[in-house]
Amino acid sequence: MGRIRGANYDEDFSFVSPVVKYLLFLFNLIFWMISMVMMSIGVYARMMKHAEAAMACLAVDPAIMLLVVGVLMFFITFCGCVGSLRENICLLQTFCIFLTLIFILQLAAGILGFIFSDKAQNKVKTVINKAIVHYRDDIDLQNLIDFGQKEFSCCGGIAYTEWTKNQYFNCTPDNPSQERCSVPFSCCLLSKVESVVNTMCGHRMQEQSFSDAGKFIHTEGCIDKLVNWIHGNLFLLGGIALGLAIPQLVGILLSQILINQIKDQIELQNYNLRHRSDPWQ
Q1: Is 188 helix (H, G, I), strand (E, B) or coil?
Q2: Is 5 exposed, middle or buried, given 0-12, 13-18 or 19+ CB atoms closer than 10 A?
Q3: What is the crossing angle of helices 117-133 and 89-115, to 10°?
Q4: Residues 222, 128: Cα–Cα separation, whole Å
Q5: Nearest partner of 73 among 38, 104, 26, judged by Cα
Q6: Mind listing the pLDDT tens digit for each residue in 135-144?
Q7: Max CA-CA distance within the chain?
Q8: pLDDT (tens digit, 9 = 90+) per residue, 103-114?
Q9: For residues 279 and 232, what is the distance between their CA atoms, to the nearest angstrom?
Q10: Is this prediction's pTM over 0.85?
Q11: Which UniProt keywords apply (predicted)?
């Protein structure tokens, strides 16, 4: 208030910078549109699935994860868009608080994941095992696992024999499935000379020894491959983490600047109001 009382300002003067205001609005508008696309894809993918299959693997459903992230991003960016455009302190503070909480949670998750790497690895193993169980129940999950196995040249969680946990690939004698004791085709060693992918190349591979199966499929599990990839790409992961953190920090900084400017503007308006009613103040 002292800074306002001791200075003279024109009637049209405003502490609120249009550059900060519309930059924050544009920043939130971009991510708001991204959240709309994410929610649309999530809802569409969810509606295209059978209800029974969707409920069976709810915890590992990529469509649900996409939908949850989209809804959360939509709410936060909506507060930022409307708050900056309407110069609403309450909405801007909500936007800033949520963005700060997400940033702190991401930072804490990264630190805890690094400190408790063994527990994080066990958690990843649990998620992969659950995904293997529901491999045929969800087409999105199936495509995600196939993509991972192809990219990392791996098969299963610990080893290719873990595919016996799936009811279709189970190796028990009473399993009537034609895929009994097999593995998905994404486990197979792909030949560059083959023009057509042999989707049956993993047939009965669980009955083979590691050395024999290794001639046709990848026998190493995806968990070890994933851990090795993380250790070998720490700079890349650090760059991705920084790339995610910078927009959040920019959003927090811009919202705090705009909040302070709006508060100064409110003080100026109150001061001018009192000054007009009592010129001796």
Answers
A1: strand
A2: exposed
A3: 100
A4: 9
A5: 38
A6: 888 777 888 8
A7: 98
A8: 999 888 888 877
A9: 71
A10: no
A11: Cell junction, Cell membrane, Cytoplasm, Disulfide bond, Glycoprotein, Membrane, Transmembrane, Transmembrane helix
